[in-house]
Write a structure and sequence with these properties.
8-stranded mixed beta sheet; 16% helix; 37 strands; alpha+beta; 9-stranded mixed beta sheet
Length: 658
């Protein structure tokens, strides 16, 4: 849920000279220490008592550059040892081309009750560390001293943010509940921001006043809108399996600079139209300029295309060439980092280098590919109301051949033509080319995550089950398996790992087909022996046929979920088992055949067990037909998994016939 509004109308606000309502550092109430459980959620390990932040645009007198002066202050009650992780503090600082965010005035204290006296342990400044995460991000880290159950931790700091475009976003919601969270924004009168409130909750209160002469630029004093946003009794945000970036769903407030009113008249629009963005990207040397580099590949095309017979085989040959020539350096980016020519020379590049190079190479082969920019799953969902180019962190190629559209990313050597990495599956992307206006396009998986098991075996007199296991993997299942083979170093090493990880059976012989033929199903054939029973001289033998597809735990455990279940792609697992029994055994008991379905054909689970002529057969089908399930479908999905898990626990019983 998004609520959008704009900070512009100073005349509608009241006038005030009041300062931001920060709370006094080191001042506590007896209730802070007497409380034995959280007020918002009694099961919480820790709770924010009060949290305050403010952002104010300032000017550097030496350089004339604007920056955001951000203040943060929080007080947290720790209820038990599980809450100690709240004392591990990480503060992200952005790194820009010519500058980086700067932190200062760090204060941190752990308070505890000692025989009626409140005592505190201050953080040693030498225990504050800075760690570079990427070229664009570093973390300031420290751990609160002398943590104890029942203690209260408090820390505060200030950050000089070098970019004003996104001002300072504010998270009202985190992994622990909050009694009171407050953010105050001071926005100069000539700076207009689009403001969005994201998440399921509304604000407890908000108000705006005018602060006189909050900023002076070139001798001109400016008034500010002082906007206060408060949320109270905020439940914790609980992350669970199958979700995209938590930032998509937490209750937050975000700012984007819309336009600037100049002191001498006129206005500069910062928030652009898509027409503006189309022109900006297609004329940008590191984007559109790289798409045009087909001359880098023209002389190579005869060799690249020498064994091709049609358009699809030509496109696949170009795709394979780029995958082979430029290896991904693990950096994302919609722009080329080095430029395609240098990436080819060094055989290394970021996503922009690889996929803009792919577009250029496809152009050289006579195709007309488009670029498609998107935001990855961990980066967050893009705003589709107006373009914010910084929200996009990735580019792929879109190619139409014989009426079919292929989305291509050449960064993963083990993915087949037309199947995107899961990180790309995050809603819509924007398609750009040099001739037409850009447009939105659904970025979806072209294949299921699918696997099929066939097991044909015999229960022998010594109690061992010997047989052949056939496995057929496609889509993302095949991709993960090929990754495991590559990580192991060889098929033989992979099989040995598989043997070690499955104590229920031993592999005596193996064959694996199509490891390098990415467009084909990955096939595995294993001769296996299961040490299932110590002989068959028993009246009853217990055997669970779900040893291949068993779901161990339910990934869905919340009472309710306010965000979608996003699996990336549809899923399918099929199991077929045929077990030849000794002449004197019959099937005495088995789980009832099951037929479960999710609403609106969202998925199904079916099993069947039968015995005919001493041949025991078991089959199971597990399908999730949708890549994304809404919060309203969550409880049905949770119950679906729960029933499957209970059914898969049931052994079948083989009994000697009398």
């Amino acid at each position: 849920m998004y609520k959008r509004f704009k900070i512009v109308a100073l005349l509608l606000l009241t006038f005030s000279a009041a300062q931001a309502q920060n709370f006094e550092y080191g001042k506590h109430k007896p209730s802070d220490f007497l409380a034995t459980k959280a007020t918002v959620d009694s099961t919480a390990d820790a709770e924010v008592i009060r949290e305050f932040g403010s952002g104010r645009i300032q000017i550097d007198d030496a350089t004339g550059n604007l920056y955001v002066d951000f203040t943060y202050h929080v007080k947290i009650k720790i209820f038990n040892a599980e809450g100690f992780k709240q004392g591990n503090v990480e503060i992200p600082l952005r790194i820009y081309n010519s500058a980086a965010d700067e932190i200062r005035d760090i204060q941190a204290t752990t308070y505890y009750h000692d025989n009626g006296t409140i005592r505190g342990n201050e953080l040693d400044p030498k225990q504050v560390f800075t760690e570079n995460q990427t070229r664009f991000l570093k973390l300031v880290k420290f751990t609160m001293p002398n943590l104890k159950p029942g203690s209260v931790i408090e820390y505060a700091y200030k950050i000089r943010r070098q970019s004003i475009f996104n001002f300072s976003s504010w998270d009202f919601q985190s992994e622990i509940p909050k009694q009171h969270s407050e953010f105050v924004a001071f926005i100069p009168a000539n700076y207009n921001f689009n403001v969005s409130l994201k998440g399921p909750r509304g604000l407890s209160s908000q108000n705006g006043v005018v602060e006189r002469e909050c900023l002076r630029i070139a001798g001109n004093a400016m008034d500010c809108s002082k906007m206060t946003y408060i949320m109270k009794d905020v439940a914790a945000f609980k992350e669970e399996a199958y979700m995209t970036a938590a930032s998509n769903f937490k209750s937050t407030i975000n700012f984007e600079l819309s336009d600037v009113q100049h002191l001498r008249g006129g206005k500069s629009n910062i928030t652009k139209t898509w027409k503006d963005v189309d022109y900006e990207l297609t004329t940008e040397r590191k984007f559109g300029g790289q798409m045009k580099q087909k001359d880098l590949f023209s002389s190579k095309m005869p060799e690249i295309l020498k064994n091709t017979t049609d358009s699809l085989s030509k496109a696949k040959a170009v795709f394979a060439y780029i995958k082979d020539q430029i290896k991904w350096n693990n950096y994302l980016g919609k722009y080329s980092d080095k430029d395609v020519k240098k990436a080819l020379e060094t055989h290394s590049g970021n996503i922009g280098d690889i996929n803009l190079g792919l577009i250029a190479a496809l152009n050289a082969a006579g195709f007309s590919p488009d670029a498609l920019i998107l935001s990855t799953r961990q980066n967050g969902i893009v705003n589709n109301l107006y373009p914010v180019i910084t929200e996009f962190d990735y580019v792929i190629a879109k190619l139409d051949i014989a009426g079919k559209t292929y989305l291509l990313d050449a960064s993963e050597p083990l993915l087949p033509f037309g199947l995107l990495p899961l990180r790309c599956l995050n809603g819509k992307g924007r398609v750009l080319n040099f001739k037409k206006p850009s447009y939105w396009y659904d970025v979806t998986a072209s294949q299921k995550d699918a696997v099929k098991y066939n097991f044909v075996a015999t229960l022998e007199a010594d109690g061992k089950i010997k047989g052949t296991l056939y496995t057929f993997s496609s889509g993302y299942n095949a991709f993960r398996k090929r990754e495991r083979i590559a990580e192991a170093g060889s098929v033989e090493a992979f099989v040995q790992q598989l043997d070690d990880q499955n104590p229920s059976f031993s592999i005596t012989k193996h064959e694996v087909f199509n490891v390098d033929s990415l467009d084909r199903i990955l096939e595995e054939r294993y001769e296996v022996t299961m040490e299932q029973f110590e002989g068959t001289d028993y009246d009853k033998l217990f055997f669970n046929p779900n040893f291949l597809n068993r779901i161990g735990t339910n990934p869905f455990n919340l009472n309710e979920r306010s965000y979608p279940v996003d699996m990336g792609s549809a899923t399918e697992t099929r199991v077929s088992m045929i077990l030849n029994l000794p002449q004197n055994f019959v099937l005495a008991e088995a789980a009832k055949d099951m037929g479960l379905g999710l609403p609106e054909n969202g998925g199904r689970y079916q099993t069947q067990t039968k015995l005919e002529d001493k041949v025991l057969s078991f089959s199971a089908l597990f399908q999730l037909n949708k890549p994304v399930y809404s919060p309203e479908e969550y409880l049905s999905l949770k119950e679906f998994y729960s029933k499957i898990i209970q059914q898969q626990k049931i052994d079948l019983i083989l009994q000697k016939s009398k």
